[in-house]
Amino acid sequence: MRKHMMRAARVSRRTLLAMVALGGFLGSLAAWVPQARADDAAGAKAFIDKLAEEALTIIKAPNVTTPERQKRFYEMFSKAFDVPQIGRFVVGRHWQRLKPEEQQQFLDVFGRYVASIYASQFSEYRGYNFRTTGARQTSPGEASVPAQIDREGQAPIRMDFRVKNDGGFRIVDVAVESVSLILTKRDEFSTTLNTEGVSGVVKRMQVVIDNAQRAG
Length: 216
Description:
By secondary structure, this protein is an alpha+beta fold. The chain is 66% helix and 19% strand. Strands 1, 2, 3, 4, 5 and 6 form a 6-stranded antiparallel β-sheet that branches.
């Protein structure tokens, strides 16, 4: 009986020590996770702030032709957006039906298409003030960065950037006045995808790119 009680006591002590160790681990984990999330959100905000600073530099650059300004915007936004993730979402179920070379062709054109859209928009924001207004973690590795473009005598343009961090920050969606880029493009391309396939969408995107270049 005495030996049984001693064994039970040893087991209880081991269990208690294990619980203390586990509690300490969970406590440190709980302390680490909020900090990691805060760092993620802060990093995403810093990323968008830097992007805005680069855009402002391009806008204010003296003696730069419009085509050259558009080219610089394109290069900047091509690196800032996660084109593969956005492109696959926009194409939806059609993506798996494409050959690898067709997938790559679509992503190449889609990247230039998205860059052209935002290059055209930001080139018109001369004299406006862009600023981020906060940041919050929305899921592991992803944060939301609200921002706005202040216009004198007019209501500000409100934006929200979804930014992911998988070893580097990249934009996966932009909502302007609560209208999502990826959802808008998915809806916009849906009919063409069903009737003309991805090749039809590629042709339409190329028209937009060519028009943007001519406008420049």
